[in-house]
Design goal:
By secondary structure, the protein is an all-alpha fold. Helix content is about 75%, strand content about 0%. It is built from 29 helices and no strands. Helix 7 packs across helix 16 and helix 7 packs antiparallel against helix 17. It is globular.
Length: about 625
């Protein structure tokens, strides 16, 4: 890295650490301040913070790999999540706020009744806080290793005597964190990556563990702006070197031929071979997943918002910035990398093809960005990494602190109430446990796509129960146990029985059918939740949907809550259609097929605008106006 590149990176580090230290006084008061920023966050800030977290440096690499492996239409696997984000906003965001809880695992104790609530809360805390969180953090850290291995050659910067001692320590530990991104030996690459990750974690820890969620959100807003700015500069440079958008498209067709290029740049799959798997995956993946109701750090950001309306706006900002703003820039970069680093059909058969195409995003930065611009992009990647790692450390430790340490260890087992400052200290300490678990996963992944697909499969097993518990009163604690048991047991079996990538749709469909069936069966054959517990939950949270008996018990009209559910779903799908039409339209405006006229994108953009009246009022209405109870 040139000196100007290092200077840009240093300025970013100083700003982020300072922001965390400024928030330290508030965060140290209690765990509600530490994990939810006092529940006074503005919606747009929470939405940008979510976007910064999911901007993660692994995602642009994933984009590049997906385009090369399966073409642009494979990006629908990411774009379709816009529907899930909007469903969270229009249906679930306000419910999370009203629940008055600190973590989503805590929800089970106010939603259900009986002695199995606490064991379920404990299991969910460990499941999400360590198992799921570690898998997600693992492929984020894998991207981290790929980035720092390429751009931070510590063996060339540090004194030989000092570095040789670190090299010996790495050899003694016997670990391998090399990614193949460089020609360094395994021990040298592993040592460099260990130095980088330790420094990155110390850096993230200085602001996230001191400032809590308040510090995380403050730095996320800055980090997202930096990450988007760097990506736009990168895309602009690649377009300039290609002769503009038209020149880029001409070069793609010249390199790959009309038939192959048209297939790679199509927004829909071929009818012959991929249509059915594509439709199954698209129909299931967005709905049946681990964040189907916002569970996790998305719910955390909603719970931190100041009002129901702000929570809804947070999800809306998140969806549009994430799916439209970010994706279009990365799409341009991914298509340009097809030109600057071409490949043959034979290359696609190589075992490491996906991982090698993911790395072209990083190689392109090193090869094509000049000093200064390269420093901006490297800093943007570090910012993306930091914003993701800080969230997963903060979110993961919230389970271990609030649900395991406070609720189970202290209140249930030791029969004592922990002090506020004690809990904040435990929260800072448990972040280290979450990080170590993520490193173990990262060391055993071959590519980002591999980790992503494993997490999708396990998430599909619990997606149904996470949504149904809000809209159907009959869901009980046994339903959640059944869904989690299916996910844990069926996941490894399906991976073994259907190992090939072209069988993924069978894995997902089987998991969804079995887990949803188990969820509903458990609800119908086991004892229902106590009516008084359901009524207390309904009165405080005001869910919508199929709550007929509970609403009638409270003297309300069951038709009103069912009607409210329909209105929210209409707003969700109307806004989702606007979003996805806008993605296609804007993408086609920038990357126009040589045989298409300038008018081709217009119907998509026009459709996006015409659908706005279906959802705008639901988005902007004040808290409490949306339910008809």
């Amino acid at each position: 890295m040139a000196s100007v590149d290092m200077l840009i990176l240093l300025v970013f580090v100083i700003f982020s650490v300072t922001a965390g230290l400024r928030a330290r006084r508030h965060a140290s008061k209690n765990i509600e301040e530490y994990y939810l920023a006092g529940r006074e966050v503005k919606g747009w800030r929470a939405g940008v913070s979510m976007s910064a977290t999911q901007f993660a440096a692994d995602t642009p690499l994933l984009f590049s790999g997906l385009i090369a492996v399966a073409g642009i239409f494979a990006l629908w696997r990411i774009w379709v999540y816009g529907l899930a984000f909007l469903l969270m906003g229009f249906l679930f965001a306000a419910l999370w706020r009203r629940a008055g809880i600190l973590t989503d695992a805590e929800l089970v104790e106010i939603r259900y009744s009986g002695r199995w609530r606490l064991p379920l809360r404990l299991i969910k805390a460990v499941y999400f806080g360590l198992l799921i969180n570690s898998v997600v953090l693992g492929f984020v850290l894998l991207a981290t290793f790929q980035i720092v291995e390429l751009f931070l050659p510590w063996h060339a910067w540090l004194p030989d005597t000092f570095y040789s001692g670190l090299l010996a320590a790495t050899d003694w530990m016997g670990i391998d964190l090399s990614t193949g991104a460089t020609e360094f030996g395994t021990e040298t690459a592993t040592t460099n990556n260990l130095i980088s990750i330790v420094l990155l974690v110390v850096f993230v820890g200085l602001y996230s563990t001191t400032g809590g969620l308040r510090g995380v959100i403050s730095t996320d807003v800055f980090q997202f702006a930096l990450a988007m700015g760097g990506s736009i500069v990168f895309a602009g440079i690649l377009l300039w070197e290609s002769g503009g958008p038209a020149g880029l498209m001409d070069r793609v067709f010249a390199l790959y031929g009309t038939e192959r290029a048209s297939g790679m740049l199509a927004f829909s799959p071929s009818i012959e071979g991929a249509l059915m798997p594509f439709l199954v995956i698209m129909g299931l993946q967005w709905l049946f997943q681990m964040n189907s109701d916002g569970t996790g750090y998305l719910a955390q950001r909603c719970m931190a918002c100041s009002t129901d309306r702000e929570a809804r706006i947070a999800a809306f900002v998140f969806a549009w910035v994430q799916i439209l703003g970010r994706s279009v820039v990365w799409l341009v970069i991914g298509v340009a990398l097809l030109v600057f680093y071409p490949f043959s059909p034979a290359d696609t058969l190589e075992p490491g093809f996906a991982a090698s195409r993911e790395r072209t995003f990083l190689v392109g930065i090193a090869d094509w960005m000049p000093a200064g611009a390269r420093g901006l992009m490297i800093t943007a990647l570090v910012a993306a990494l930091a914003s993701t790692i800080d969230t997963h450390l903060n979110w993961g430790s919230s389970y271990l602190t609030n649900d395991v340490y406070k609720r189970f260890l202290c209140q249930s087992w030791l029969k004592r109430e922990p002090a506020s400052r004690e809990l904040v200290a435990v929260g800072r300490a448990t972040s280290v446990i979450v990080l170590l678990a993520g490193c173990v996963v990262a060391a055993n992944l071959d590519s980002i796509q591999q980790g992503w697909k494993v997490s999708l499969l396990f998430g599909a097993g619990i997606g149904a129960v996470l949504m149904l518990r809000w809209v159907w009163e009959r869901i009980n604690v046994q339903s959640e146990f059944a869904a989690m048991a299916v996910a844990v047991v069926a996941g490894p079996i399906l991976l073994w029985a259907f190992p090939a990538d072209d069988m993924e749709w069978i894995r997902l469909a089987t998991m969804v059918i079995v887990s949803t069936g188990a969820t509903i069966l458990a609800a119908l054959v086991t004892r229902p939740t106590d009516p008084n517990a359901l009524l207390a939950f309904y009165r405080s949270v005001r869910p919508v949907g199929f709550w007929g008996r509970t609403v009638a018990l409270g003297g309300g009209d069951p038709r009103g809550v069912r009607r409210a559910l329909g209105q929210k779903l209409l707003a969700t799908f109307g806004c989702g259609a606007s979003l996805l039409l806008a993605v296609v339209g804007v993408s086609k405006l920038i990357l126009r097929h040589p045989e298409e006229t300038w008018f081709a994108p217009v119907p998509f953009v026009a459709g996006a605008v015409l659908l706005v009246p279906l959802w705008w009022r639901r988005l902007t209405e004040q808290s409490g106006d949306e339910e008809s109870t």
